[in-house]
Amino acid sequence: MTQTFKIAVIGAGMAGLSAAGALAQAGHEVVLFDKSRGSGGRMSSKRTESGDLDMGAQYFTARDHHFRNALQEWMNRGWVAQWSPRLFVKNDSDLVESPDDQQRFVGTPRMTSLSRGLLEGLTLVSQTRIDSLRQIADDLWELVDDNGGTHGPFNRVVVAAPAPQAVPLLSSATQLAQAASQIEMQPGWTLALAFAQPLDTAVEACFVRAGDLDWISRNSSKPGRQGLDSWILQSSTRWAMGNLDTNKQEVGNRLRAAFADVLGLDLPTPVYEHAHRWLYARSPATCNWGALAAPEKGLYVCGDWCLGGRLENAWLSGQQAAHTLLERK
Question: What DSSP string describes 256-312?
Answer without folding.
Answer: HHHHHHHHT--PPPPSEEEEEEEEEEE--TT-----EEETTTTEEE--GGGTTS-HH
